[in-house]
Write a structure and sequence with these properties.
By secondary structure, this protein is α+β, with helices and mostly antiparallel strands. It has two helices and eleven strands, in the order βββαββββββαββ. It comes from Corallincola spongiicola.
Length: 187
């Protein structure tokens, strides 16, 4: 069975770039300290622990939640004005890591995290500019992809808002050339 992904409509495609309109979604997120790779791993573990049953469902019992893709991360602050190219650098060494929850859940039916570091919130419909790439997602490569996306957005007259998000769709054992990665920037 395929892994569920957030629902979106492609508004425009140009080479490795897309403009997308995402439907509302619910995310489970955590804020973690450290370098990008370490923070990604720690954030993934905290949210995976939540979806694998460290939660309390409305029934009062723990409930396993299906894994979705992608796993996304962004610098900890959501209020950075992006007027010049930026990279996936953290703010005060904090990174926001999140999973999109399966569409079958609402805020009322989704189990509550037992770990206070894991938060649930709803994201309204949002448009994103996206660049797709394969391979590893080291800081230099992500910075390069982010710069390319910002330059493309500038040529289209699109003003970014928020911070870039790195979205990874594959498990770590996937061969690098088969990996699907994206940098996404709301506009």
């Amino acid at each position: 069975m395929a892994t569920e992904e957030p629902k979106y409509t492609v508004l425009e495609t140009s080479e490795t770039f897309e403009l997308r309109a995402y439907a509302p979604m619910i995310i489970a997120e955590t804020l973690v300290d450290g370098q990008m790779d370490d923070a990604s791993s720690a954030g993934f573990k905290a949210i995976a622990n939540y979806i694998f049953g460290n939660n309390t469902a409305p029934s009062g019992k723990a409930e396993e939640i299906s894994m979705t893709a992608p796993v996304a991360m962004a610098a900890g602050s959501e209020n950075i004005n992006m007027t010049a190219p930026v990279t996936m650098q953290s703010v005060d060494s904090k990174w926001r890591v999140h999973f999109v929850m399966p569409s079958e859940y609402t805020m009322a039916t989704l189990p509550k995290p037992n770990n206070p570091a894991v938060k649930i919130r709803q994201i309204p419909p949002t448009n994103y500019a996206v660049i797709q790439f394969s391979g590893f997602t080291g800081e230099e490569k992500v910075a390069s992809q982010t710069t390319q996306l910002l330059e493309w957005m500038k040529t289209k007259g699109i003003t970014p808002r928020g911070t870039p998000q790195l979205a990874r769709y594959n498990p770590p054992w996937t061969l690098p050339f088969l990996r699907r990665n994206e940098v996404m920037i709301a506009y």
